Amino acid sequence: QAHVREYGGAPVQAGSSLKLACAVSGRSFSQFAWTWFRQAPGKEREFVAAINWVERTYYADFVQGRFTISRNNPQELVYLEMDNLKPEDTAVYFCAGDRRRLYGGDNYSSQDFYDTWGQGTQVTVSS
Q: How confident is the model over 36-76, as pLDDT tens digits?
């Protein structure tokens, strides 16, 4: 049974940095893309960043160079480093595993592509 758990969320001041981690077990890791989504209060869940199986990365426009996604295949971990955090980055951040093995395309933003989700980790940015 697949298990995904996110770590690292915290309350921080605007301009701070955080590094989120996602630990995966119980499913194949290295041949799939892994993605971070987020959901702010009262809003729909949105795509943040993805890293595919050859470590090509993709980001939402609002990231604007502030976030970096990475992966460690031997340890089955996915990271999201976030710099210069803003109050509008406040959300629950979710890690998700793509169901498309060895996918080489550029489309990662739809939640329909993911079949493995964590419970999320809360990031709160105060001004």
A: 999 999 999 999 999 999 999 999 999 999 999 999 999 99
| Residue 126 token pair | 């105060």
Backbone angles phi, psi at 60, to 5 degrees: -70, 155
> In angstroms, rounded to a whole number, what is the distance separating the alpha carbons of residues 78 and 68?
11
DSSP letter for each residue of 92-125: EEEEEEESSTT--SS----GGGEEEE---EEEEE
CA-closest candidate to residue 1, choices 121, 115, 77, 119: 115
C-alpha distances (whole Å) from 59 to each of 25, 37, 66, 107 are 25, 10, 10, 11
Quote the tokens at residue 104.
Answer: 């080489």
Which DSSP state fits 16? Answer: -
CA distance readout (Å), 126 to 11, 25, 56, 87, 123: 8, 33, 32, 5, 10
Q: For residue 41, report the phi and psi dihedrals to the nearest 5 degrees.
A: -55, 130
Bridge partners (DSSP) listed for residue 108: none
Write down the H helix ranges in the chain. Answer: none
CA torsion sign for 60, 70, 44, 112 is: positive
